[in-house]
Amino acid sequence: MTENKDQNNNPFSKGKNGNNLLKSPKFNAYWIYGLIAVAFIALNLLNIGQNPKETSWQTVKNKMIKNQDVERIVVVRNLLEVNVYLKSESLDKYPDLFESSFDSPSKSGPHYTFPIGSIEQFANQLESAQSNISDLNRIEPEYTTQQNYFSDFLGWILPFALIIGIWFYVFRRMSKGSGGSGGAGNIFNVGKSKAKVFDKESNININFKDVAGLAEAKEEVEEIVEFLKHPQRYTKLGGKIPKGALLVGPPGTGKTLLAKAVAGEANVPFFSMSGSDFVEMFVGVGASRVRDLFKQAKEKSPCIVFIDEIDAIGRARGKNPNMGSNDERENTLNQLLTEMDGFDTNSGVIILAATNRADILDRALMRAGRFDRQIHVELPDLNERREIFEVHLRPLKLDPKIDPAFLAKQTPGFSGADIANVCNESALIAARRKKDLIEKQDFLDAIDRIVGGLEKKNKIISVDEKKTIAFHEAGHATISWLLEYAHPLVKVTIVPRGKALGAAWYLPEERSITTKEQMLDEMCSTLGGRAAEELTFEKISTGAQNDLEKVTKQAIAMVSIFGMSDKIGNVSYYDSTGQSDYSFSKPYSEKTAELIDKEVKILIDASYKRAKQVLLENKEGHRKLAELLLEREVIFSEDLEAIFGKRKFGSPKLEEEIKQIPKKEESKEENDTESKAV
Ligand SMILES: Nc1ncnc2c1ncn2[C@@H]1O[C@H](COP(=O)(O)OP(=O)(O)OP(=O)(O)O)[C@@H](O)[C@H]1O
Ligand SMILES: [Zn+2]
């Protein structure tokens, strides 16, 4: 009751508060099978009323032909059967014909049928049987071929029945996976939206306090909450309530969370659907799902419709219709645009959409009256990471010494989702160690695990391989220590994790623009691994593949995007709008392409030479570092400082921060359990 009152106060309210719009009749496969069976029986019955009586050639010859009761004789070639039609005035002579009311021939015939051996033979037999009948009364056989409707029908219907059966099966499987309240439970509901609805009853109860950081984004969406709560305030002044906002940012940064929080704060239903849910293998399904989603939303207004991964449908429509454009997707997008234009601004439905590629979205989506606001949701900085940790540490049983600020420092570049993952993982690790509280070490291990994939202690690496890896990693470390702009090093390990056999961790400075010098120094330190291998062993290995890939991409970007090569000059072939069809044709000539290739090679060669130079000049230090790595498997910035002396460059503040990162001792306990498992 109270809820109804609530709604009536709201100008958006349609006074409708039922779930019945989600219901649809429940058909199932058995119905179809039943229908097919009925059709079979009906056909059979029809046939039954037409059945000529079985007889034999002898009877026909000796009785019917002799008495001149036969009107026509029809030979059915394909069935090797003869149908006999009697004269209507003679029918009385054959009372047995119609004695059964169920299985009897029709009055007009054929009345009798009998099998024959071959057509020629029968023709001869008929000829001779009529040899003493006058020409006038003689019966000439007619010839036909007959369709056997029944078996033909079977032949047709069976494959169809099979296909229908398979369809049902597939649909049931599909809809089971996506059991949203759209009720896409069967074939008749394909076009229904699969939106998940969270309304007042099943409230998600996510509020702004559950969303840490994201201060600016929150401020922007707070306005939407106000629109939903007090629409009169805006409409009174003649303002129009926005229809939609686009949340833009990398994966896991809390876009879904923020949208849910808006719904939670405004206390309105929340429809959630992913862009990829609209796209289906059938033509027209996407568009009809959009229609259905908006229909449902309007009935529940005011509400929030959230479309995750909108890029799945909202990608720019191709300019060249012949080149692999996707009609189905475009239809869906067009329907979405139509719906957005269609509903009244003040209908109380606000659409939030999320994407991590705003640049590839169709411009039409961003036009006024559609998603005309973009809200940026970025990766959290140090402070925000601390806040996110605080949110996710709340439900955990912690060692009181745990400091969220410390954890935030350990996790540069982590998204909110990664941090949630770290917290969960640390609880699992602590549980495995049979602890009552989660301690610092558990967190550090969880972070390591998430950074580098699971440690693979049992991966077998030969002594030679280990040596190669150590010198390779020491090469990276040495160069990044000595070059001015390389990222400061945190630690280097040769403990294999995931696919990597060794790794060097850096603390990336938070830069907004990068200079050419910085890029060159980074390339040089990335190539340090291979350079070290070549200098030390006079052999190179596949271990540098990842490094080479990174360097090549970097060099190509420098030449063709950032305009940093002399020969190409200040030219950028990058198209930030994503609207061009460069996928098939490059925006530059063949000659330029060659020049770009040359420039890229020159850049990489120069960096490699420089890397070798640096390593040669610091041969002793590099060797010491590699040996230390072989011995300890993990080394830290202090170890580098002990070998090369204090780092001449970089910000002292950052260096200080690095030093505060504690060194993780390989925990004995874990080693024990793991070695048992081997
Ligand atoms: N700012 C944040 N505060 C608290 N938790 C967060 C934050 N950002 C992310 N999380 C955690 O990460 C999880 C995943 O975030 P969410 O699904 O909202 O990310 P997303 O940006 O929508 O990702 P995607 O682009 O992959 O859909 C959330 O459920 C939440 O636990
Ligand atoms: Zn490397």
Task: Provide a descriptive summary of the structure in words.
With about 675 residues, this protein is an alpha/beta fold. The chain folds into four domains: about 45-145, name from scop, CATH 3.40.1690.20; about 185-375, Rossmann fold; about 380-450, Orthogonal Bundle (Helicase, Ruva Protein, domain 3), CATH 1.10.8; about 465-675, Up-down Bundle (Methane Monooxygenase Hydroxylase, Chain G, domain 1). Helix content is about 50%, strand content about 10%. The chain contains 25 helices and 14 strands. It has helices at about 1-10, 30-50, 55-65, 120-130, 150-175, 215-230, 230-235, 255-265, 275-280, 285-300, 310-315, 325-340, 365, 380-395, 405-410, 415-430, 440-450, 465-480, 515-535, 545-560, 590-615, 620-630, 635-645, 650-660, 670-675; strands spanning about 55, 70-75, 80-85, 110-115, 140-145, 195-200, 245-250, 270-275, 305-310, 350-355, 375, 490-495, 505, 635. The chain has a six-stranded mixed beta sheet. A five-stranded mixed beta sheet has the order 1-4-3-2-5, covered by helices on one side. It has a three-stranded antiparallel beta sheet with strand order 13-12-14. Helix 16 (about 415-430) packs across helix 17 and helix 19 crosses helix 21 (about 590-615). The longest helix is centred in the N-terminal third of the chain and has 29 residues, at about 150-175. It is elongated and about 130 Å long. It starts with a helix and ends with a helix. The structure holds adenosine-5'-triphosphate (ATP) and zinc ion. Zinc ion binds near residues 472 and 544.
